[in-house]
Amino acid sequence: MQITEKQILSKTNYGLDIYAHILRDFYSDETVIHLKGRITEPSKNPFRGNAPTLIFEEIDQQFLFRDNEEIAFTGTPFDFAKLHFKKDGPELLKVLLEVLHLKFERRTNKFPVFLEKKKEITPQPLPIYIPKVSFFDAPVSNTIPSKELTLKGVYELILANSVIQTEHLRQISDKKLARKYKAANFNYVTFSGTFSSRKDDALLKHSGYLAIDFDHIPDLESLKTQLLNDAFFETQMLFKSPSGDGLKWIISIDITQNTHQDWFMAIKNYLEQTYQLKVDSAGIDVSRACFLPNDPQIFINSKHLMP
């Protein structure tokens, strides 16, 4: 099946995801694109000395790039990708398919959750099998889990975690020092399953959960309300990130229908188009570590609290 540029644009928010992926290769610890309507705020330009002069604007269902100081520096998402990957034509499209995990196979009912809004149902007791996740003691360099937990167990830990530790982290203004402190002191879980060690190929059993990270959110309460009322996805757990300016959203996926990676990319695209927010791409890793802060306002789906 020959893939065209138009097909790739349809799967990448008109090419915006292509730019975001490339910029994250250069600025992995930053929010690389700030979208407002059909145009972005200036981003750093890695091809012009990291100057904050790079603009992306949606024109005729395609985000074009330009530089505010270099008129000749302009083009399409594929021109931008060509600069980074040093490839062109079909070879470039093949690279984009791989790095962005794009799928174009014809499948029946590929993402059934998108075809039908969630139904209003009376909470029922959990089935005999209760999904579990792996829990790891700090520091993050420890990759061997100490126990397995249900979502209820994670919920109880987050309620009981040290307020002082969480507040101390949020008072550290230096981002590098904050990351170092978090990595050294915060316990963590792998929401997507149980593992013999924290790496993708050591997965013992997938939990059927997917953790979505939203970082640097200006209005947390508004986003919480939107997510809890999302028409397609039922929230299993929702809590404030250790940094205090983001959210961790735990939802269910049917791993028998598609791979973890396929689900992540489909849901990422849905969320970014629906809420105009960037999703942390690291969630595509099934062994993604999620640090546990204290959050007295954590939400958990009531079915997980049933005896």
Write up this protein.
It comes from Lacihabitans soyangensis. InterPro entries: BT4734-like_N. This is VirE protein. It holds the Pfam family BT4734-like_N. Residues 185-299 form the BT4734-like N-terminal domain. The protein has 307 residues and is α+β, with helices and mostly antiparallel strands. The protein folds into 2 domains: 5-99, no CATH class; 133-305, no CATH class. It is 30% helix and 20% strand. It contains 9 helices and 16 strands. It has helices spanning 5-11, 16-26, 77-85, 89-99, 151-160, 163-170, 175-185, 220-228, 260-275; strands at residues 35-36, 39-40, 43-45, 51-58, 63-67, 74-75, 133-136, 147-149, 188-190, 193-195, 203-206, 209-214, 235-240, 247-252, 290-291, 299-300. Strands 3-4-5-6 form a 4-stranded antiparallel beta sheet, with helices on one face. Strand 3 (43-45) and strand 4 (51-58) form a beta hairpin. Helix 2 runs parallel beside helix 3 and helix 3 (77-85) crosses helix 4. The chain is globular. The N and C termini lie far apart (51 Å). Residues 107-116 have low confidence and may be disordered.
